[in-house]
Write a structure and sequence with these properties.
By secondary structure, the protein is α/β, with parallel strands linked by helices. The chain has eleven helices and eleven strands. Bound molecules: adenosine-5'-triphosphate. The site of adenosine-5'-triphosphate (ATP) has 19 residues, from helix 4. Keywords: Allosteric enzyme, ATP-binding, Cytoplasm, Glycolysis, Kinase, Magnesium, Metal-binding, Nucleotide-binding, Transferase.
C-alpha cells in the first residue's frame, strides 16, 4: 500500500536540563512514529548530536523499559555552536543526511529557540516542554515538574523531622532558575512558614517578627522555602538566626530534585504530548510547541509561545501566608 504520510522520517532529541519523564516522552514519540509507518532516529546529547553526527535509528525495543527511568536515555547537553548560523546550517546538513524532515525537541525555552531556528531552515520542529521548573508560559504543565516537586516535598518532610527534634528553623532552597513555582507548591505542601520567591516581595524583618510571635505561642520549628533564583539562601538563613536567635540551618536541595523515577502525572503527560507531537509532524506541521491547558493538549507557534508570560499563583501564595503558623 502506498505510504500517504507527508513526513516519512523524524528525529527526537532531549536538550537543556534533564527532567524526569523525558524518557516517557521519547518512548511515546518513537512508538507513535513507528506505528504511523515513519522511520525514527534518536539524536544524542541535544543539538550536539546533530553537530557531531551522533544519531542512531530507533525501534520499539530501543525504548523498552525506559518509561520508569529518570534522566534521558538520549542524554542531553547545551551547545554554544548550535546558536550560531553556521551551527544551524551544520545541523540542517545532518538532518538532510539522515532524511530527517521533522524533529521533536524535548527541552525548555532555549531549546525551543533552537527549534525555531531549525524550522526556519526547513526542518519541521515540534517542541515538548521538558523542564522541572514549569517555567514555560504556553503550558500549565511541564514534563518533570510533578516528580521534582514530590522529591523536594519528601526531602522537606525529612528536614522537618530533624528541625522539629532540635527546635530549629530549616531554610530550604529548592530548584527554580526561571520561576518560583516549585518553591510555592512545595512550600504549601510541606507546611512552610514562609515561601520566598522572586514573584512576591519579602521582608526578613517581618518574617523574623512572625517567627518570634509564633515561638512565644508555642511553635518550635520552622520551615522557610527559598526559590533558587533568589540566590542567597545561606545568607538568608544567617540573618534569620541573627534576627530571631532561633538556631537555623540552610539546606540546598540541588540536583537531587532532577532525578528519580517519574510520577504517574509526568509519565502520562509526557506520553500524551509525545504522541501529539508526532500527530503534528504527520500532518506536515512544524515550528510548534506542545503544551497542556486546562487538562487539554494544545500547540502554539514557537515565537508566540516564547512571547507569552506565565501568571504567578498569587492567590495560592496568599493562602500559604494566611494559614501559616
Ligand atoms: P532548561 O530550562 O532546562 O535550562 P533550556 O532548553 O532552556 O532548558 P538552554 O541551555 O537555554 O536550556 O538551551 C538548550 C540549548 O538550546 C542550548 O545549548 C542551545 O544549543 C540552544 N539554544 C538556546 N538558546 C538559543 C537561542 N537563542 N537560539 C538558538 N539556540 C538556542
Amino acid at each position: 500500500m502506498e505510504n500517504t504520510f507527508m513526513i516519512k522520517t523524524i528525529g527526537v532529541l532531549t536538550s537543556g536540563g534533564d527532567a524526569p519523564g523525558m524518557n516517557a516522552a521519547v518512548r511515546a514519540v518513537v512508538r507513535a512514529a513507528l506505528k504511523k509507518g515513519m522511520t525514527v532516529y534518536g539524536v544524542k546529547r541535544g543539538y550536539c548530536g546533530l553537530l557531531e553526527d551522533d544519531i542512531e535509528p530507533m525501534d520499539e525495543m530501543s525504548v523498552a523499559g525506559i518509561i520508569s527511568r529518570g534522566g534521558t536515555m538520549l542524554y542531553t547537553a547545551r551547545s554554544a555552536e548550535f546558536r550560531t548560523e553556521q551551527g544551524v546550517l551544520k545541523a540542517k546538513a545532518t538532518c538532510e543526511k539522515y532524511g530527517l524532515e521533522g524533529l521533536v525537541v524535548i527541552g525548555g525555552d532555549g531549546s525551543f529557540r533552537g527549534a525555531a531556528d531549525l524550522s526556519a531552515h526547513g526542518i519541521l520542529c515540534v517542541g515538548l516542554p521538558g523542564t522541572i521548573d514549569n517555567d514555560i508560559a504556553c503550558t500549565d504543565y511541564t514534563i518533570g515538574y510533578d516528580t521534582a516537586m514530590n522529591t523536594a516535598m519528601e526531602l522537606m518532610d525529612k528536614l522537618s523531622d530533624t528541625s522539629q527534634s532540635h527546635y530549629r528553623c530549616s531554610v530550604v532552597e529548592v530548584m527554580g532558575r526561571g520561576a518560583g513555582y516549585i518553591a510555592l507548591n512545595t512550600g504549601v505542601a510541606s507546611g512552610a512558614l514562609e515561601i520566598i520567591t522572586k514573584e512576591k516581595p519579602y521582608d526578613l524583618d517581618k518574617i523574623a517578627k512572625k517567627m518570634m510571635e509564633f515561638k512565644a505561642r508555642g511553635k518550635q520549628n520552622f520551615i522557610i522555602v527559598v526559590a533558587e533564583n533568589i540566590g542567597h539562601s545561606e545568607e538568608i538563613c544567617k540573618l534569620i538566626q541573627e534576627k530571631t536567635g532561633i538556631e537555623s540551618r540552610a539546606t540546598i536541595l540541588g540536583h537531587v530534585q532532577r532525578g528519580g523515577s517519574p510520577t504517574v502525572r509526568d509519565r502520562v503527560a509526557a506520553t500524551e504530548m509525545g504522541y501529539y507531537a508526532v500527530e503534528l509532524l504527520e500532518q506536515g506541521i512544524g515550528n510548534r510547541v506542545v503544551g497542556m491547558q486546562g487538562g487539554k493538549i494544545v500547540d502554539f507557534d514557537i515565537q508566540e509561545a516564547l512571547s507569552m508570560e506565565k501568571p504567578y499563583d498569587g492567590k495560592l501564595h496568599q493562602i500559604a501566608e494566611d494559614i501559616a503558623f
